[in-house]
Design a protein that fits this description.
Blueprint (H helix, E strand, L loop, with lengths): L2 E3 H8 L3 H9 L7 E2 L6 E4 L3 H12 L4 H13 L1 H33 L8 H5 L3 H7 L2 E9 L9 E5 L3 E8 L3 H13 L1 H4 L5 H19 L5 E9 L3 E7 L3 E6 L2 E4 L6 H8 L4 H4 L22 E6 L5 E5 L1 H4 L4 H10 L3 H14 L6 E9 L2
Antiparallel strand pairs: 1-3, 2-3, 4-13, 5-6, 6-7, 7-8, 8-11, 9-10, 9-12, 12-13
Helix pairs in contact: 3-4, 4-5, 8-10, 14-15
Length: 366
């Protein structure tokens, strides 16, 4: 098998010589040989599949560091590499949808028409649309130490505009979860309209910096919260606390766990059933632990319709109480407070091995 000059290899791989030099410097695509005198790079045909994969992944926008991981996996297990690419693209589509919601929200706000309607349309609004503009939240929250843990490091909050659940960990976990929720409570009166997502992001950043500067050891917290804008709920999420939605009798999860096992599920290497007993099921990939790399939150806007019921909870609930029981309670409890009480009681009846926290809110009119 003969050697190819960098120009010939560039044509065959559809990568420019400049890109090939960059990928060599990054260790992503190393030449087969570099002439010691001239510095010329030479490649072999066996490197073409990796080079072409790099080119394809660059076209879909995958970061270079991630491309290197996928290419290394491709050389030993091509089907697994395919699953990783699929999981990456699913994540891109989710984030794109969230950005699309944000763009719609910003256009509505900046146009001076929060409902996104023209003046003539506004004058012809139906009674049901008028009711939507008068929608409010009916809410409740609760937390319990459980039957095993010596202290309660979970924090739950429900107010007219905010639902929040935080699950602290480490020696200073109770302080961390409480500080996270307190930072968001301060936004109920101070943040409105188009500033809501920026306000949530800034609050999370402050909480994370506080954990870096003031927490003991590896302490931190997860956080899931929803802030009511008057027409939508702004969601912020870091870690494995969760948010569920009951709409039209169907319950769905509207957050994505930032855990090792969830990433394995996304990649197709683990089933949801296997994840429940995986030895590393509690390993977090993102949390407010003082690390800038781990603290990036999911932020998006969620449309609300009258009759929606929302549940935010810590893993002390959903790892103990099965999905069928969660669905049943959300469907049948008359009031948010009833749902909170029954869900915590079910967690305790299941042994209460962890702290448990939950917040429930109903979107109502009138």
């Amino acid at each position: 098998m003969g050697e190819l000059t960098i120009g010939a290899f560039a044509r065959a791989s559809r990568l420019s010589p400049k890109a090939l030099r960059l990928y060599d410097e990054l260790g992503l695509l190393t030449p087969a040989r570099v002439d010691g005198t001239t510095g010329y790079r030479y490649y072999v045909e066996a490197q073409l599949p990796r080079a072409r994969l790099v080119a394809w992944l660059r076209r879909v926008g995958m970061p270079l560091a991630r491309i290197g991981e996928v290419c290394d996996l491709y050389e030993t297990d091509p089907p697994a590499a395919g699953l990783v690419i699929g999981a990456y693209w699913a994540r891109v589509e989710t984030e794109t949808a969230a950005r699309r919601d944000l763009v719609t929200f910003l256009v509505d706000q900046l146009s001076g028409n929060p409902a996104g309607k023209g003046v003539e349309e506004m004058s012809e609004m139906s009674m049901s649309e008028m009711a939507m503009s008068e929608m409010r939240m009916r809410y409740a929250a609760g937390s319990d130490r459980g039957l095993v843990r010596p202290v309660n490091q979970d924090t739950a909050y429900a107010g007219a505009r905010l639902l929040a659940v935080a699950d602290g960990f480490g020696a200073d976990g109770a302080r961390a979860s409480g500080a996270a929720v307190d930072a968001l409570v301060a936004l109920e009166e101070s943040v409105r309209g188009a500033d809501v997502l920026n306000g949530l992001a800034d609050a999370v950043d402050r909480v994370n910096r506080g954990n870096r500067e003031g927490s003991a050891g590896d302490s931190g917290t997860t956080l899931t919260a929803m802030l009511w804008t008057g027409s939508r709920l702004a969601l912020v999420h870091v870690g494995d606390t969760r948010a569920y939605l009951l709409r039209g009798g169907e319950v769905s999860r509207i957050t994505h766990d930032h855990t090792l096992v969830q990433s394995m599920i996304d990649a197709g290497s683990l089933t949801a059933e296997e994840a429940t007993s995986h030895p590393q099921r509690a390993l977090l990939l993102r949390a407010l632990d003082g690390s800038a790399d781990h603290a990036r939150p999911d932020l998006r806007l969620h449309d609300v319709v009258p009759g929606d019921r929302y549940l935010l909870c810590s893993d002390g609930l959903f790892t103990v109480v099965g999905p069928d029981d969660i669905r049943r309670v959300l469907r049948t409890a008359a009031e948010p407070a009833d749902a909170v009480s029954e869900l915590i009681a079910l967690a305790l009846a299941g042994g209460g091995p962890d702290n448990v926290a939950c917040a429930v809110a109903d979107a109502v009119t009138g």
